[in-house]
Amino acid sequence: MKRIAIKNWPKLPNDLIPIAIDRNSVDYVQASSNCFITGKPKLILMARTENEAAASIKYASRVRKETGIDVPFSFRSGGHGISMASVNNDGIILDISKLKKVEIVDINKGLVKVQAGAVWGDVAEFLNRFHLVISSGDFGDTGVGGLSTSGGIGLLVRSFGLTIDHILAAKVITADGEIRSVDKDNEPDLFWAIRGGSSQIGLVTELLFQADKIEPENQYQCPITVQNIDFIIDDLESFVHKWGKWIDEAPLKITSNLMFTSFDNNQILVKMNNFWVGMPNQIANDAFKKASKLAIVKKYDQKVVDYGKLVKAPHNPHKGQQPVYVKNVLLNNFIPHLGTKISDIVHNQKTIGVELRSIGGYLNTVDANQTAWADRSAVIFIAFWSKSKNNKNINRIFDSLQKVDVGVYGAYSSDLSMKESYRIWPSETAQKLKNIMSIYDQKHLFNQGHYLYD
Protein backbone atom coordinates (compact mmCIF):
# COMPACT_ATOMS: atom_id res chain seq x y z
CA MET A 1 0.00 0.00 0.00
CA LYS A 2 1.31 3.43 -0.90
CA ARG A 3 2.20 5.91 1.80
CA ILE A 4 0.52 9.29 2.02
CA ALA A 5 1.56 11.45 4.95
CA ILE A 6 1.27 15.22 5.19
CA LYS A 7 3.15 17.02 7.92
CA ASN A 8 0.95 18.30 10.77
CA TRP A 9 -2.20 16.82 9.21
CA PRO A 10 -4.12 13.93 10.78
CA LYS A 11 -3.38 10.48 9.41
CA LEU A 12 -5.24 9.65 6.23
CA PRO A 13 -7.78 6.85 6.84
CA ASN A 14 -6.86 3.54 5.23
CA ASP A 15 -9.95 3.55 3.03
CA LEU A 16 -8.83 6.85 1.43
CA ILE A 17 -5.22 5.89 0.75
CA PRO A 18 -6.03 4.03 -2.54
CA ILE A 19 -7.64 7.19 -3.96
CA ALA A 20 -5.06 9.67 -2.67
CA ILE A 21 -2.62 11.65 -4.81
CA ASP A 22 0.08 13.81 -3.25
CA ARG A 23 2.91 15.91 -4.66
CA ASN A 24 5.06 12.80 -5.12
CA SER A 25 2.50 11.03 -7.31
CA VAL A 26 3.15 10.69 -11.06
CA ASP A 27 -0.31 12.00 -11.97
CA TYR A 28 -0.19 14.97 -9.59
CA VAL A 29 0.22 17.74 -12.20
CA GLN A 30 -2.74 16.65 -14.30
CA ALA A 31 -4.95 16.06 -11.25
CA SER A 32 -4.12 19.45 -9.72
CA SER A 33 -5.02 21.54 -12.79
CA ASN A 34 -8.16 22.81 -14.41
CA CYS A 35 -8.57 24.47 -17.79
CA PHE A 36 -7.65 27.92 -16.50
CA ILE A 37 -5.11 27.47 -13.74
CA THR A 38 -2.70 24.95 -12.19
CA GLY A 39 -2.95 24.51 -8.45
CA LYS A 40 -0.52 23.17 -5.87
CA PRO A 41 -2.67 21.26 -3.39
CA LYS A 42 -1.15 19.08 -0.73
CA LEU A 43 -3.66 16.30 -1.34
CA ILE A 44 -6.06 15.16 -4.08
CA LEU A 45 -8.72 12.53 -3.41
CA MET A 46 -10.10 10.84 -6.55
CA ALA A 47 -13.39 9.47 -5.28
CA ARG A 48 -14.76 6.42 -7.08
CA THR A 49 -17.98 6.17 -5.08
CA GLU A 50 -20.31 8.41 -3.13
CA ASN A 51 -19.10 6.79 0.10
CA GLU A 52 -15.50 7.70 -0.76
CA ALA A 53 -16.61 11.27 -1.50
CA ALA A 54 -18.38 11.41 1.86
CA ALA A 55 -15.31 10.05 3.66
CA SER A 56 -13.17 12.66 1.89
CA ILE A 57 -15.42 15.45 3.13
CA LYS A 58 -15.20 14.11 6.68
CA TYR A 59 -11.42 14.01 6.42
CA ALA A 60 -11.21 17.59 5.11
CA SER A 61 -13.34 18.71 8.04
CA ARG A 62 -11.06 16.85 10.43
CA VAL A 63 -7.95 18.44 8.91
CA ARG A 64 -9.35 21.91 9.55
CA LYS A 65 -10.44 21.04 13.07
CA GLU A 66 -7.16 19.43 14.17
CA THR A 67 -4.82 21.93 12.51
CA GLY A 68 -6.91 24.99 13.37
CA ILE A 69 -6.21 26.25 9.85
CA ASP A 70 -8.76 27.14 7.18
CA VAL A 71 -7.23 24.61 4.77
CA PRO A 72 -8.66 25.16 1.26
CA PHE A 73 -11.08 22.44 0.16
CA SER A 74 -12.17 22.33 -3.49
CA PHE A 75 -14.52 20.20 -5.57
CA ARG A 76 -13.47 19.21 -9.08
CA SER A 77 -15.79 17.53 -11.58
CA GLY A 78 -15.14 18.53 -15.19
CA GLY A 79 -12.41 21.01 -14.27
CA HIS A 80 -13.63 23.70 -16.66
CA GLY A 81 -15.09 26.19 -14.17
CA ILE A 82 -14.33 29.82 -14.99
CA SER A 83 -14.24 30.67 -11.28
CA MET A 84 -11.11 28.43 -11.20
CA ALA A 85 -12.03 27.37 -7.65
CA SER A 86 -11.89 23.65 -8.46
CA VAL A 87 -8.16 23.69 -7.63
CA ASN A 88 -6.23 25.39 -4.87
CA ASN A 89 -2.84 25.83 -3.24
CA ASP A 90 -1.80 23.91 -0.09
CA GLY A 91 -5.26 22.40 0.39
CA ILE A 92 -7.36 19.40 -0.59
CA ILE A 93 -9.10 18.73 -3.89
CA LEU A 94 -11.96 16.24 -3.98
CA ASP A 95 -12.18 15.05 -7.59
CA ILE A 96 -15.41 13.27 -8.57
CA SER A 97 -14.69 12.83 -12.28
CA LYS A 98 -14.95 9.05 -11.88
CA LEU A 99 -18.60 9.45 -10.87
CA LYS A 100 -19.85 9.81 -14.43
CA LYS A 101 -22.67 7.34 -15.01
CA VAL A 102 -25.61 8.43 -17.20
CA GLU A 103 -28.80 6.36 -17.36
CA ILE A 104 -32.36 6.59 -18.62
CA VAL A 105 -34.84 6.19 -15.76
CA ASP A 106 -38.04 6.52 -17.81
CA ILE A 107 -37.78 7.05 -21.56
CA ASN A 108 -41.46 8.00 -21.96
CA LYS A 109 -41.23 10.68 -19.28
CA GLY A 110 -37.73 11.80 -20.30
CA LEU A 111 -36.28 11.08 -16.87
CA VAL A 112 -32.49 10.87 -16.85
CA LYS A 113 -30.12 10.23 -13.95
CA VAL A 114 -26.64 11.74 -14.29
CA GLN A 115 -23.71 11.57 -11.90
CA ALA A 116 -22.07 14.93 -11.28
CA GLY A 117 -18.60 13.90 -12.46
CA ALA A 118 -19.77 13.40 -16.04
CA VAL A 119 -19.08 16.06 -18.66
CA TRP A 120 -21.88 17.52 -20.74
CA GLY A 121 -20.53 16.37 -24.09
CA ASP A 122 -20.73 12.75 -22.98
CA VAL A 123 -24.23 13.31 -21.58
CA ALA A 124 -25.33 14.86 -24.90
CA GLU A 125 -23.86 11.99 -26.91
CA PHE A 126 -25.72 9.48 -24.72
CA LEU A 127 -29.06 11.33 -24.82
CA ASN A 128 -28.90 11.99 -28.55
CA ARG A 129 -29.77 8.38 -29.41
CA PHE A 130 -32.97 8.71 -27.34
CA HIS A 131 -33.96 12.03 -29.00
CA LEU A 132 -33.55 13.82 -25.66
CA VAL A 133 -31.79 17.05 -24.69
CA ILE A 134 -30.97 18.70 -21.37
CA SER A 135 -30.40 22.44 -21.50
CA SER A 136 -26.76 22.82 -20.51
CA GLY A 137 -23.66 24.89 -21.21
CA ASP A 138 -21.93 25.37 -24.54
CA PHE A 139 -18.69 23.42 -24.08
CA GLY A 140 -18.60 19.64 -23.94
CA ASP A 141 -15.82 19.31 -21.35
CA THR A 142 -17.79 21.27 -18.75
CA GLY A 143 -18.66 19.15 -15.71
CA VAL A 144 -22.26 18.35 -14.86
CA GLY A 145 -21.85 19.14 -11.16
CA GLY A 146 -20.44 22.64 -11.42
CA LEU A 147 -22.80 23.83 -14.14
CA SER A 148 -25.92 22.22 -12.68
CA THR A 149 -25.53 23.80 -9.27
CA SER A 150 -24.68 27.25 -10.67
CA GLY A 151 -27.55 27.67 -13.13
CA GLY A 152 -26.68 26.51 -16.62
CA ILE A 153 -26.94 29.07 -19.42
CA GLY A 154 -26.56 27.15 -22.66
CA LEU A 155 -26.99 27.15 -26.42
CA LEU A 156 -30.72 26.36 -26.21
CA VAL A 157 -31.59 28.55 -23.24
CA ARG A 158 -34.46 30.48 -24.85
CA SER A 159 -36.18 27.22 -25.77
CA PHE A 160 -35.49 25.14 -22.67
CA GLY A 161 -34.32 27.52 -19.93
CA LEU A 162 -31.54 26.86 -17.44
CA THR A 163 -30.12 23.48 -16.51
CA ILE A 164 -31.46 23.88 -12.98
CA ASP A 165 -35.00 24.27 -14.33
CA HIS A 166 -34.97 20.57 -15.22
CA ILE A 167 -33.63 19.09 -11.97
CA LEU A 168 -36.25 16.97 -10.18
CA ALA A 169 -34.08 15.45 -7.46
CA ALA A 170 -30.47 15.16 -6.35
CA LYS A 171 -28.06 13.46 -4.00
CA VAL A 172 -26.05 15.88 -1.87
CA ILE A 173 -23.23 15.27 0.59
CA THR A 174 -23.25 17.93 3.29
CA ALA A 175 -20.40 19.06 5.53
CA ASP A 176 -21.15 16.35 8.11
CA GLY A 177 -20.47 13.71 5.46
CA GLU A 178 -24.11 12.64 5.22
CA ILE A 179 -25.43 11.56 1.79
CA ARG A 180 -28.86 13.11 1.43
CA SER A 181 -31.55 12.50 -1.19
CA VAL A 182 -33.38 15.75 -1.81
CA ASP A 183 -36.34 16.92 -3.89
CA LYS A 184 -39.35 19.22 -3.47
CA ASP A 185 -40.68 17.02 -0.66
CA ASN A 186 -37.47 15.83 1.04
CA GLU A 187 -35.33 18.57 2.59
CA PRO A 188 -36.87 21.12 0.17
CA ASP A 189 -34.70 24.01 1.40
CA LEU A 190 -31.54 22.07 0.54
CA PHE A 191 -33.06 21.13 -2.83
CA TRP A 192 -33.81 24.82 -3.46
CA ALA A 193 -30.26 25.84 -2.53
CA ILE A 194 -28.37 23.40 -4.74
CA ARG A 195 -30.25 24.71 -7.80
CA GLY A 196 -28.32 27.94 -8.32
CA GLY A 197 -26.53 28.19 -4.98
CA SER A 198 -23.35 26.63 -6.42
CA SER A 199 -21.02 24.48 -4.29
CA GLN A 200 -21.28 26.46 -1.05
CA ILE A 201 -24.07 24.23 0.32
CA GLY A 202 -22.68 20.77 -0.32
CA LEU A 203 -21.31 18.36 -2.91
CA VAL A 204 -23.92 17.23 -5.42
CA THR A 205 -23.05 13.74 -6.66
CA GLU A 206 -26.12 12.78 -8.70
CA LEU A 207 -29.03 14.55 -10.41
CA LEU A 208 -32.38 13.44 -11.77
CA PHE A 209 -33.34 15.52 -14.82
CA GLN A 210 -36.51 15.99 -16.79
CA ALA A 211 -35.12 16.06 -20.32
CA ASP A 212 -36.82 17.60 -23.35
CA LYS A 213 -37.59 15.67 -26.52
CA ILE A 214 -36.65 16.65 -30.08
CA GLU A 215 -38.31 14.66 -32.83
CA PRO A 216 -35.89 12.85 -35.17
CA GLU A 217 -35.97 13.76 -38.86
CA ASN A 218 -34.13 12.50 -41.92
CA GLN A 219 -30.79 11.07 -40.78
CA TYR A 220 -30.75 13.13 -37.60
CA GLN A 221 -31.71 11.68 -34.24
CA CYS A 222 -31.88 15.02 -32.44
CA PRO A 223 -31.50 17.84 -35.00
CA ILE A 224 -30.33 21.37 -34.20
CA THR A 225 -29.97 23.94 -37.00
CA VAL A 226 -26.94 26.19 -36.59
CA GLN A 227 -26.39 29.48 -38.42
CA ASN A 228 -22.89 31.02 -38.23
CA ILE A 229 -22.31 34.54 -39.57
CA ASP A 230 -19.25 36.79 -39.43
CA PHE A 231 -19.73 40.56 -39.74
CA ILE A 232 -17.21 43.41 -39.78
CA ILE A 233 -18.78 46.35 -37.94
CA ASP A 234 -17.94 50.05 -37.79
CA ASP A 235 -20.94 51.14 -35.71
CA LEU A 236 -21.58 48.65 -32.91
CA GLU A 237 -24.25 50.85 -31.33
CA SER A 238 -26.44 50.54 -34.41
CA PHE A 239 -25.70 46.83 -34.86
CA VAL A 240 -26.57 45.91 -31.25
CA HIS A 241 -29.81 47.88 -31.53
CA LYS A 242 -30.78 46.00 -34.72
CA TRP A 243 -29.79 42.64 -33.22
CA GLY A 244 -31.85 43.37 -30.09
CA LYS A 245 -34.93 44.16 -32.16
CA TRP A 246 -34.39 41.04 -34.28
CA ILE A 247 -34.00 38.63 -31.35
CA ASP A 248 -36.93 40.21 -29.51
CA GLU A 249 -39.16 39.39 -32.49
CA ALA A 250 -37.55 35.99 -33.22
CA PRO A 251 -39.25 32.71 -32.21
CA LEU A 252 -38.20 31.23 -28.88
CA LYS A 253 -36.84 28.21 -30.76
CA ILE A 254 -33.90 30.47 -31.67
CA THR A 255 -31.09 31.34 -29.26
CA SER A 256 -28.48 33.83 -30.47
CA ASN A 257 -24.91 34.26 -29.22
CA LEU A 258 -22.51 36.98 -30.34
CA MET A 259 -18.75 37.35 -29.80
CA PHE A 260 -17.08 40.73 -30.41
CA THR A 261 -13.35 41.09 -30.94
CA SER A 262 -11.21 44.02 -32.07
CA PHE A 263 -10.41 44.17 -35.80
CA ASP A 264 -8.27 46.39 -38.03
CA ASN A 265 -8.87 50.16 -38.28
CA ASN A 266 -10.97 50.30 -35.11
CA GLN A 267 -13.50 47.93 -36.62
CA ILE A 268 -15.07 45.03 -34.72
CA LEU A 269 -15.40 41.43 -35.83
CA VAL A 270 -18.76 39.98 -34.85
CA LYS A 271 -19.22 36.22 -34.81
CA MET A 272 -22.92 35.37 -34.59
CA ASN A 273 -24.05 31.83 -33.75
CA ASN A 274 -27.79 31.17 -33.94
CA PHE A 275 -29.37 27.90 -32.83
CA TRP A 276 -32.79 26.65 -33.92
CA VAL A 277 -34.30 23.60 -32.22
CA GLY A 278 -35.12 21.10 -34.97
CA MET A 279 -34.83 21.03 -38.75
CA PRO A 280 -35.21 24.41 -40.47
CA ASN A 281 -38.72 25.32 -41.65
CA GLN A 282 -40.12 28.48 -43.22
CA ILE A 283 -40.24 30.27 -39.86
CA ALA A 284 -36.62 29.40 -39.13
CA ASN A 285 -35.46 30.39 -42.60
CA ASP A 286 -37.25 33.73 -42.37
CA ALA A 287 -35.58 34.46 -39.02
CA PHE A 288 -32.15 33.39 -40.33
CA LYS A 289 -32.60 35.59 -43.40
CA LYS A 290 -33.36 38.62 -41.23
CA ALA A 291 -30.25 37.87 -39.12
CA SER A 292 -28.07 37.83 -42.23
CA LYS A 293 -29.26 41.34 -43.13
CA LEU A 294 -28.20 42.99 -39.87
CA ALA A 295 -24.89 44.09 -41.48
CA ILE A 296 -22.57 43.26 -44.36
CA VAL A 297 -21.77 39.55 -44.19
CA LYS A 298 -18.10 38.53 -44.30
CA LYS A 299 -18.65 34.79 -43.89
CA TYR A 300 -21.78 32.61 -43.76
CA ASP A 301 -22.52 29.01 -42.89
CA GLN A 302 -25.72 27.12 -42.06
CA LYS A 303 -25.95 23.44 -41.19
CA VAL A 304 -27.91 20.86 -39.24
CA VAL A 305 -26.10 18.88 -36.54
CA ASP A 306 -27.20 16.34 -33.98
CA TYR A 307 -27.41 17.55 -30.38
CA GLY A 308 -24.64 15.11 -29.49
CA LYS A 309 -22.24 16.85 -31.87
CA LEU A 310 -23.34 20.35 -30.91
CA VAL A 311 -21.72 20.06 -27.48
CA LYS A 312 -19.22 17.33 -28.22
CA ALA A 313 -16.58 16.75 -25.53
CA PRO A 314 -12.99 17.00 -26.79
CA HIS A 315 -11.70 15.57 -23.48
CA ASN A 316 -8.69 17.86 -23.53
CA PRO A 317 -6.25 17.27 -20.66
CA HIS A 318 -6.27 20.16 -18.22
CA LYS A 319 -3.01 22.00 -17.63
CA GLY A 320 -4.04 25.60 -16.97
CA GLN A 321 -3.85 26.24 -20.69
CA GLN A 322 -6.37 29.09 -20.82
CA PRO A 323 -5.34 31.77 -18.29
CA VAL A 324 -8.20 34.25 -18.45
CA TYR A 325 -10.25 36.52 -16.22
CA VAL A 326 -13.98 36.71 -16.92
CA LYS A 327 -16.70 39.10 -15.73
CA ASN A 328 -20.37 39.20 -16.69
CA VAL A 329 -23.69 40.93 -16.18
CA LEU A 330 -27.33 39.98 -16.61
CA LEU A 331 -29.64 42.69 -17.96
CA ASN A 332 -33.44 42.74 -18.04
CA ASN A 333 -33.60 45.17 -20.97
CA PHE A 334 -31.47 46.97 -23.53
CA ILE A 335 -29.89 49.87 -21.66
CA PRO A 336 -29.11 53.16 -23.47
CA HIS A 337 -25.89 53.13 -25.48
CA LEU A 338 -25.30 49.42 -24.85
CA GLY A 339 -23.43 48.99 -28.14
CA THR A 340 -21.17 51.95 -27.38
CA LYS A 341 -20.34 50.61 -23.93
CA ILE A 342 -19.48 47.21 -25.40
CA SER A 343 -17.42 48.84 -28.16
CA ASP A 344 -15.32 50.73 -25.61
CA ILE A 345 -14.59 47.50 -23.77
CA VAL A 346 -13.78 45.56 -26.96
CA HIS A 347 -11.21 48.15 -28.04
CA ASN A 348 -9.41 48.09 -24.68
CA GLN A 349 -6.00 46.48 -25.19
CA LYS A 350 -6.53 44.14 -22.24
CA THR A 351 -9.71 42.67 -23.71
CA ILE A 352 -9.79 39.30 -25.47
CA GLY A 353 -13.44 39.57 -26.43
CA VAL A 354 -16.96 40.34 -25.30
CA GLU A 355 -19.94 37.98 -25.51
CA LEU A 356 -23.54 39.09 -25.93
CA ARG A 357 -26.26 36.44 -25.59
CA SER A 358 -30.02 36.26 -25.72
CA ILE A 359 -31.25 34.37 -22.66
CA GLY A 360 -34.93 35.24 -22.26
CA GLY A 361 -37.78 32.90 -23.17
CA TYR A 362 -38.28 29.84 -20.96
CA LEU A 363 -35.90 31.24 -18.34
CA ASN A 364 -38.32 34.13 -17.73
CA THR A 365 -41.30 31.84 -17.10
CA VAL A 366 -39.90 30.26 -13.92
CA ASP A 367 -40.85 31.83 -10.60
CA ALA A 368 -37.86 33.63 -9.06
CA ASN A 369 -38.49 31.94 -5.70
CA GLN A 370 -38.41 28.42 -7.11
CA THR A 371 -34.60 28.18 -7.22
CA ALA A 372 -31.56 30.04 -5.87
CA TRP A 373 -31.04 31.64 -9.31
CA ALA A 374 -32.91 34.86 -8.70
CA ASP A 375 -32.51 36.88 -11.92
CA ARG A 376 -35.56 35.57 -13.75
CA SER A 377 -36.25 38.89 -15.49
CA ALA A 378 -32.90 38.74 -17.31
CA VAL A 379 -33.03 38.66 -21.12
CA ILE A 380 -29.43 39.60 -21.95
CA PHE A 381 -26.13 38.11 -20.82
CA ILE A 382 -22.85 39.95 -21.42
CA ALA A 383 -19.44 38.47 -20.61
CA PHE A 384 -16.01 40.10 -20.82
CA TRP A 385 -12.82 38.05 -21.31
CA SER A 386 -9.32 39.29 -20.44
CA LYS A 387 -5.85 37.81 -20.02
CA SER A 388 -4.69 40.33 -17.44
CA LYS A 389 -3.86 39.15 -13.93
CA ASN A 390 -4.47 42.60 -12.42
CA ASN A 391 -8.07 41.94 -11.50
CA LYS A 392 -8.70 45.36 -9.96
CA ASN A 393 -7.79 47.14 -13.17
CA ILE A 394 -9.80 44.65 -15.22
CA ASN A 395 -12.87 45.21 -13.08
CA ARG A 396 -12.66 48.94 -13.85
CA ILE A 397 -12.87 48.22 -17.60
CA PHE A 398 -16.20 46.49 -17.01
CA ASP A 399 -17.57 49.13 -14.60
CA SER A 400 -19.76 50.84 -17.20
CA LEU A 401 -21.84 47.67 -17.49
CA GLN A 402 -21.44 46.39 -13.93
CA LYS A 403 -23.09 49.54 -12.56
CA VAL A 404 -26.33 48.89 -14.44
CA ASP A 405 -26.56 45.12 -14.06
CA VAL A 406 -29.54 43.16 -12.84
CA GLY A 407 -27.23 40.46 -11.57
CA VAL A 408 -24.32 38.15 -12.28
CA TYR A 409 -24.15 34.54 -13.45
CA GLY A 410 -21.79 32.90 -10.97
CA ALA A 411 -20.53 30.08 -13.20
CA TYR A 412 -19.18 32.67 -15.64
CA SER A 413 -17.34 34.93 -13.19
CA SER A 414 -13.67 34.80 -12.14
CA ASP A 415 -14.27 37.53 -9.56
CA LEU A 416 -14.38 35.75 -6.19
CA SER A 417 -14.93 38.87 -4.11
CA MET A 418 -17.75 39.02 -1.59
CA LYS A 419 -19.15 41.98 -3.51
CA GLU A 420 -19.51 39.77 -6.58
CA SER A 421 -21.18 37.04 -4.52
CA TYR A 422 -23.89 39.48 -3.47
CA ARG A 423 -24.44 40.33 -7.13
CA ILE A 424 -24.91 36.63 -7.85
CA TRP A 425 -27.28 36.16 -4.91
CA PRO A 426 -28.99 39.45 -4.06
CA SER A 427 -30.95 40.39 -0.91
CA GLU A 428 -33.58 37.77 -0.02
CA THR A 429 -31.86 35.01 -2.01
CA ALA A 430 -28.59 35.64 -0.16
CA GLN A 431 -30.29 35.63 3.22
CA LYS A 432 -32.11 32.38 2.54
CA LEU A 433 -28.87 30.75 1.36
CA LYS A 434 -27.04 31.90 4.48
CA ASN A 435 -29.84 30.53 6.67
CA ILE A 436 -29.55 27.15 4.95
CA MET A 437 -25.76 27.22 5.22
CA SER A 438 -26.10 27.83 8.97
CA ILE A 439 -27.86 24.47 9.19
CA TYR A 440 -25.75 22.37 6.85
CA ASP A 441 -22.29 23.99 6.94
CA GLN A 442 -21.82 26.01 10.10
CA LYS A 443 -18.01 25.91 9.83
CA HIS A 444 -18.00 27.04 6.16
CA LEU A 445 -16.11 24.01 4.95
CA PHE A 446 -17.31 24.70 1.40
CA ASN A 447 -15.93 28.22 1.13
CA GLN A 448 -13.99 27.99 -2.11
CA GLY A 449 -15.33 29.77 -5.16
CA HIS A 450 -18.33 32.06 -4.80
CA TYR A 451 -19.84 31.90 -1.33
CA LEU A 452 -21.65 34.02 1.20
CA TYR A 453 -20.80 34.84 4.76
CA ASP A 454 -20.04 38.04 6.61
From TrEMBL:
Report the protein name in the record. Answer: FAD-dependent oxido-reductase
Cite a single GO MF annotation.
FAD binding
Q: Which cofactor does it need?
A: FAD
Q: Which domain of life is it from?
A: Bacteria
Q: Which UniProt keywords apply?
A: FAD, Flavoprotein, Oxidoreductase
Q: What is its EC number?
A: 1.21.-.-
Q: Residue ranges of the FAD-binding PCMH-type domain?
A: 37-214
Report the family membership. Answer: Belongs to the oxygen-dependent FAD-linked oxidoreductase family.
Protein source organism: Oenococcus oeni (Leuconostoc oenos)
